[in-house]
Structure formats: C-alpha cells, structure tokens
Amino acid sequence: MSPTEPVRPGRAQWAALILFAGASGAVDVLAFIALGRVFAGVMTGNLVLLGLSFTGTGDEGGPAAPPLALAGYVAGVAVVAPFTRRRPEEPESRWPRAVVGWLAAEVVLLAAVAAGWAAADGAPAQPWRDVVLVAVSAAMGVQSAALAGAGAAGGPGTYFTGILTRLVARATGPGYVGRADMGSLARLVTLAAGATSAALVYAASAPWAMAVPLLWASAAVTCVTVSPRRWRRTPRE
User: Fold this and answer.
1) pTM value?
2) Residue 62: pLDDT over 50
3) CA–CA gap between residue 101 and residue 96 (Å, rounded)
4) Are 103 and 146 in contact (CB under 8 A)?
5) Residue 160, number of CB atoms within 10 A of its CB
6) Within 10 Å of residue 175's Cβ, how many Cβ atoms?
7) What is the DSSP letter of 85?
8) pLDDT tens for each residue of 26-57
9) Which of 59, 70, 163, 212: CA 20 to 30 A from 3?
C-alpha cells in the first residue's frame, strides 16, 4: 500500500464491522425493552435519560438504570483502550491481534450473559437485572474501544449518527459514493436488523433473546479469525 493511499478495511473487516452493528442493535433493543428502558451502547441517549430521571417523569426503568449503563460502558472502554495499540509489524489494513483478542473477550462476556439470562428464564430479578445491564453495557464498551483501536481499518462500534450524517452528506453533495459508503449503509441496515431480530426472539421466547447479540458478535469475530486469506481480493486489501 502506497503512503498516499488511504487505509481501508479489508473484506473480512468490513464483514465484521457490519455484523458488529447487528450485535449493537440487538443488545440495545434488549436493554431498552427488558433492562430498564435504557441503552447498552448509545451513551448520548443514556445521558438524556439520566437528565430526564432527575425530573421524576418518564422514568419507567428507575433512576438507577441510566447511571448503571453509563458505568458499565465506561468500564468496558477504560479496560480495553490502553491495550489495543498496533505492533509495528502489523499492517494498517488489518486489525491488530490485541483488537481481535478483546473482541473475542466481548463474545465470552456475551456468552456468560446469555447463559445467565436463559437460567433466569429471560426475566432476572433484582439485583441480577442490574448486573446484566452493567455486563452488556461493558460488552458494548469493549466493542467500541476495540474497534476504535483498529484505527482507519475499524470504525465506530456502537454509535452510528456520524455514519448516517456522512452518508447523507455525500449522497446529496458532490462527494463520490463508493464502497466505503455502501459498507456504511450496510452497517445502518444491519443495526436495524439486529434490533428487529432480538425483539422478535424476545417476544417469541424471552430466555433465548440474549443469544441473538451473541450470535451476531460471534459471526463478526469469526470473520477476522478464520481463514482471513479467503477474504483477500488484492494483495493490498
């Protein structure tokens, strides 16, 4: 790759980014409908809900839910961020091994949550419901920090407003809509698909609902760990 050529995610990385968007959508919808009307990954929304909780209105989830979600997310980011530095020998178009390792750790955390959720028949009592909220929020913090650590070959892991803004701006302006924009559009569509899939499973069989984000995240990690050469289209990608 030439020094002037921008770094782009490879095909495996793009597939993983799209699948992680599905995991994010699934976790957020489950947090909202089953864990206190808050979000596990959208911290801007949680800050708004935190402010709303101080007024005593619209606090169906209770005043503790927004700060718990915030605390879990911040903890996830704080733990991962110092350990995602790229080694000098690792190409910029590939995710560092540390990034992939932490994303695998996210999958393990989601698996533990899914097992506990199923054991509680999809309706954990307090204080375990708060524990689940902190755990899934921490998982989203891990995902966000790890994907940020991937640099230009990564991208946002749980917040997509900027992606939507850039996509609309380029589609309506003079910018060229290329493969990166199509990948961004795919991430937005998959975000909604992940939320829909989790909501449908929760309505049909609540104990299995937490398996949905686990499946999305597991598929994403698989993309960047199993036979990555199969995804190569050019030596530079």
Assistant:
1) 0.86
2) yes
3) 9
4) yes
5) 20
6) 12
7) P
8) 999 999 999 999 999 999 888 998 888 777 66
9) 163
Q: Which residue has the tokens 């976790």?
A: 27
Radius of gyration of the CA atoms of the chain, in A: 18
Q: Residue with structure tokens 């990954």? A: 41
Task: Report residue 39 as tokens.
Answer: 């979000």
Q: In which residue are the tokens 């997310």 written?
A: 73
pLDDT digit string, tens, across residues 96-121: 889 999 999 999 999 999 999 999 99
Contact (CB, 8 A) for 132 and 116 = yes
- Residue 180 CA to residue 93 CA, distance in Å, equals 14
Q: List domains and CATH numbers for the chain.
A: 11-227 (1.20.1250)
d(CA 30, CA 36) in angstroms, rounded, equals 9
The tokens describing 187, both together, are 């991430």
Q: Residue with structure tokens 């054991």? A: 119
User: Where does the chain have alpha helices with state H?
Assistant: 11-34, 43-53, 65-80, 97-119, 128-149, 161-172, 179-204, 211-223
Closest CA to 16 of 94, 112, 81: 94
